[in-house]
Amino acid sequence: MANCSSVDRQGAFLGEPRDHRHIDYFQSLEKFREAGLPCELPIRIEKTLRHDPRLCHLQSEVDRLEREEGQTSPAVEATREVERFRKTLKRTTLYRYQREWVKDRRKWKILSRGREQPSDDDKADLAQCLFLLIPRPSRSSHG
């Protein structure tokens, strides 16, 4: 990889103008990585999303359609719209939360003048990975 690091392969493939900014950061993405950056919303914030006015309006519309028409095409489409909006809301809230987290972290580094390093006592990153790797015990194995 080091032999072809100065080639902008994607730009060449797409016929875009040459961009060699990636050469400055070839050896690592460390400058762009924020250790401990949360990849999920805290539960307290995620619970508040349920009370979003637009989400509540969309959900009430789904409930009305299901009451009046049952599981017809308009009700199914309205349900899909609710799910799309819920995902979008969660994603934008997560991005906002991450930006605030980074901003607070940088302020903290400035205030501590870099003498103190942030610690992840909870090992949140590790817990997220282990959660995906360790399977849940099946109900049949317990008796």
Question: In words, what does this structure look like?
Answer:
With 143 residues, the protein is mainly alpha-helical. It folds into two domains: 1-33, no CATH class; 37-114. The chain has helices at residues 9-14, 43-48, 53-69, 73-111, 124-133. α3 packs antiparallel against α4 (73-111). The termini are far apart.
Summarize the structure.
This protein has 143 residues and is an all-alpha fold.
The H/E string reads HHHHH
Write down the oligomeric state.
single chain
Please work out how many helical segments DSSP would assign.
5
Average residue-wise pLDDT: 76
Strands, count: 0
* Overall 3D shape: extended
Based on secondary structure, the structural category is: mainly alpha
Poorly predicted residue ranges: none
